[in-house]
Amino acid sequence: MNAHSRTKNDEAIQELALFSHSSFGFRHSSLVVLFMPFHYLEDIGTADIAFEATGRDLSELFTSAGDATMNVMIENLDTIEPREMRRIELKNDEIDMLLFDFLQELIYFKDAERLLLRVHEMRIEEREGTYSLSATTVGEPLDARRHQQRADVKAVTLHDFRVEKTEGGWKARVILDI
Q1: Rounded CA separation 81/88 (Å)
Q2: Structural domain contains residue 21
Q3: 3-state class of 136 per DSSP?
């Protein structure tokens, strides 16, 4: 990577860190994304990006967290077209670790197959102390001409990772290593 590329990458990462939340969405200079069910957290670290995602139920929470993770990587989620489908089936005794595993799967597909995926259908059930996730994701291979890249997410971290029930549904706090 040359010095110019590093500078552009550093600028993109700094832009992500400067997002601020408003009641209508996010605003950063001329960029406005309305009604996103997540917001980015500042002052976490230079190699990390943090967000909180919300949902009325677990399926909506996981979908929001998946979109937030993809949105760290790609400027405009709407540019991801549903050309390919992948099923994700996971089980875990802990709901927070189920979300952790799900987000790691999205990152895995991006790394292994260069596939950008969004949730099309999500079902989460709890039976006898075990949570199961069944998701249909759709997306397409990364296309540098159409997908304006922001940062390369390497992994979800366990530091300060949590999922909690709230009065209005569910909330997750996630820190991504970039």
Answers
A1: 18
A2: no
A3: strand
- Amino acid identity of residue 119, one-letter, is V
CATH code of 128's domain: 3.55.10.10
CA-based max dimension of the chain: 54
CA–CA separation, 157 and 100 (whole Å): 8
- Look at residue 24 and tell me if it is in a domain: no
Please give the chain's pLDDT, 178 residues, in tens.
454 544 454 454 445 444 433 333 444 444 444 566 877 777 655 688 999 999 999 999 999 999 999 999 999 999 999 999 999 999 999 999 999 999 999 999 999 999 999 999 999 999 999 999 999 999 999 999 999 999 999 999 999 999 999 999 999 999 999 9
Count how many domains the chain has. 1
Cα–Cα distance measured from residue 38 to residue 20, given in angstroms and rounded to the nearest whole number: 11
CA distances from 133 to 30, 41, 120, 151 (A): 37, 27, 13, 27
Nearest CA to 38 among 77, 87, 2, 79? 77
In the numeric block, which tokens belong to residue 104? 């790691």
One-letter amino acid identity for 53?
Answer: A
Residue 151 lies in a domain: yes
pTM: 0.75
Residue 77 to residue 1: CA distance in whole angstroms: 26
